[in-house]
Amino acid sequence: MIDQIYTYFTIEMIFLWLNLGVLPFWLVLIIFPQSQICKVFITSIFPISIISLVYSYLLYSLFNDGYDFLGNFELYLGLSSILNLFSDRSFLILFWCHFLAINLFCGGWIVKDSQKFGINKILITLPLILTYFIGPIGITIYWFIRIFYSKKISLYD
To answer: pTM of whole model > 0.90?
Structure first.
């Protein structure tokens, strides 16, 4: 049975399931941010735990395949090193899993923070969509919206 799981969950299949798997979370964040489902399943540790299980499986399978994890530290050496790392499918799927988890965490934070300040859910739709696609820009736009609702500029909270 474990061999069947190992042969089914190839890098391409994991990529497909990761991309399809985060969509319901993002749809609930965008459409129903004040629902109980969003509070219990989306803005909690639940989705990040699922992604971390996938990440752990990837680490385990890459370790068994003899992946050079120390080579990942080459990303700090320059753009050409990053380009070489992104040409490796194993590194790319680890990065993508990391990217999805962080963006989903930020989307959950935006929803919880907007509820704390009473920001209209329509106003956070654009920052949530932008955070899904291009995280830092969505968070920055949300920060500007948040300034008007909190009536103060705070660089930390």
So the answer is: no
